[in-house]
Amino acid sequence: MPLSMKKQNTFILFAVIFSFFANVAESNSILKDVRINQSDNETRLVLDLTEKVKYKLFTLNRPDRIVIDLYQADLGKDLKTNINKTGLINGIRIARNNSRRIRMVIETSEILFYRLSAIPKNPNPNHRLVIDLKKAFEGSKKLAASSVNRKKLVVAIDPGHGGKDPGAQGSQAIEKDLVLKISKKLKKLIDQEKTMSAFLIRENDSFPCPDNRSNCRQQESLSERITRAKKGGADLLVSIHADAFSDRSVRGATLYALSDSRKIRRGSEYKVMYRPKTKNNVKLKSTSSRKSLSRVTSSDIDAQDQSIEIGKHILKEMKKDVRIRKKTPREAEFAVLKSTSIASVLIETSYLSNKDDEKFLINPRNQDKIVEAIVRGLKSYSASTRKDLGKK
Length: 392
Ligand SMILES: [Zn+2]
What we know:
CATH class of the largest domain: Alpha Beta
Radius of gyration: 28 Å
CATH topology of the largest domain: Aminopeptidase
Structural class: alpha+beta
CATH architecture of the largest domain: 3-Layer(aba) Sandwich
Number of strands: 18
CATH superfamily of the largest domain: Zn-dependent exopeptidases
Low-confidence stretches: 1-8, 10-25
Mean pLDDT: 90
Strand content: 25-35%
Helix content: 25-40%
Bound molecules: zinc ion
Order of helices and strands: HEEEEEEEEEEHEHEHEEEEEHEHH
Number of helices: 7
Strand order of the largest sheet: 5-1-2-10-9-15
Number of domains: 2
């Protein structure tokens, strides 16, 4: 090989190495700012970066944390590396973890739903990573707390349908009238309990609509029922229905409830940080373990899927007096079951399309049996929760 050729090769090799380093240096993204937006039940974190980054996200417990590693990234000159409590975040620490990555540790106030999305630079001046945090178990925690503490357990009773919407039609009964009758009986019985109180979402043959409008769409009416339950300070929403089916031989009661993670809209990309494993999905937080149960609030409790738990207790009691179609709560994404901030069950008391079921259901004595079973179920849930929370 002539000397001149060798020199040229060395030059090419050097040029390649140099450009590799130059590339790396160029692609290092700078974390310029971390912004936090807080609304009622949600906290949004926005990371402003100069360039796109590789990242990894994972969660830890004790204390509950979300960790984000940013690769080939640098800390911005004016970046605040310690952020105090804001919204659902107890605090944030950002530091260089090793030569390759920056680590951001977000300590959260409880186990949350989270999602992360990246928003590319153009047309924005920065590349953004957006982390949305959302309360996941508010409804479960509230139900567990108020079923054991000194505060009364408040039950919102939702008689299905109403007004222009008759619901299922039997040969003698119409669902909207029948479920109103049963709901009124349930309210009366709950109000007789010292530890509970109830209110009705509708008290007459009306179709619940937002802002007391006389008419609205089905979907609006369903979310209005949840709104009324929340406004009334309910810890539990019980929606009462009677079913109909093309196969007239189908009969028996069914209870529907959703686990908390299924209350989140499908395709919303939210994930739960982790699932603690406890019996009946309820326990006192270690920091609250010396508190008397009569004084606990929802923030003293870790709880999830309590809609399902209370559903099991109600079904167990109903089974004693009422024909049951399914022995355990069924999960179905009915709109009234989908709020994460209120525990809820929907009871199909039986099938109006079945002659024997209809005959059973229009008998006032049997309506009493149903509401008595529901109240026994609520009390049995309270007793069981008290026992679980009392354990060390
Ligand atoms: Zn119905």
